[in-house]
Design goal:
Elements: H1 11-14, E1 23-27, H2 33-40, E2 44-49, H3 52-58, E3 64-67, E4 81-87, H4 96-104, E5 107-118, H5 123-131, H6 153-162, E6 165-171, H7 180-187, H8 193-196, E7 199-206
Parallel strand pairs: 1-2, 1-4, 2-3, 4-5
Antiparallel strand pairs: 5-7, 6-7
Helix pairs in contact: 4-6
Length: 211
């Protein structure tokens, strides 16, 4: 078993998925336990992943699931999707800002894109990098050794604007072991959200086609 990520239902991803949209694509679907609930709700969910091991499980849970090569930038037909899930995917992709344009083209105008990425301005990530002077190669988490992109709220927002996406809603995502951070975020009126959020979670709408 070489696939490193746990087979968990991710409520923090599921909460971002709106009620509209029958045909949904998932890039980096993994074993797709979260997306399987959407299938049970009557939606068509099509997943792709680079891991054969993960796809073998996902194929039993989704409408369809298939392996794609790591450099595949258009795994679904243009304008064929009502919604697209990119959960912890963009940080693994070379030139991800350009690839996001290709992904957005797969979604019809007015459709939605759900994105989650690690937040490198998270206070504990900054502590490791700035004060400890280290950038670890961890198997999982913010310093996952397979991450290629350093993600921040502003960087993701810039990529999405360039791709023709409009922010519909942003969600806070905290490390559950750090219960003080939600309180600090509220007390500071979310002005320092980048310090207290473990990941960046947001839902966007396709406003204009990516050029």
């Amino acid at each position: 078993m070489n696939y490193p990520y746990n087979d968990l239902f991710r409520q923090e991803i599921y909460r971002m998925i709106p009620s509209d949209g029958l045909v949904i694509g998932v890039v980096g679907c993994g074993r797709a336990l979260t997306e399987a609930r959407l299938v049970k709700e009557g939606r068509q969910v099509h997943g792709v992943d680079v891991s054969q091991e993960a796809i073998e499980v996902a194929a039993t849970r989704l409408t369809s699931a298939r392996v794609v090569p790591p450099n595949e930038v258009a795994p679904f037909e243009a304008r064929s999707l009502d919604g697209l899930i990119l959960a912890d995917v963009m940080e693994h992709i070379p030139s991800a800002w350009s690839v996001l344009n290709d992904y957005v083209r797969m979604v019809r105008p007015g459709g939605w894109v759900v994105i989650s990425v690690p937040n490198m301005r998270y206070i504990e990530a900054l502590w490791t990098f700035v004060f400890k002077g280290d950038w670890p190669e961890d198997p999982l988490g913010i310093f996952d050794q397979t991450h290629l992109q350093v993600m921040t709220h502003k960087r993701l927002a810039r990529w999405c604007r360039s791709a023709g996406l409009s922010l519909e809603r942003e969600y806070d995502c905290y490390d559950p072991s750090r219960k003080i951070y939600p309180l600090l975020n509220r007390l500071t009126f979310r002005l320092f959200k980048s310090l207290f959020n473990f990941e960046i979670h947001a839902r966007y709408r396709v406003v204009t086609p990516a050029s």
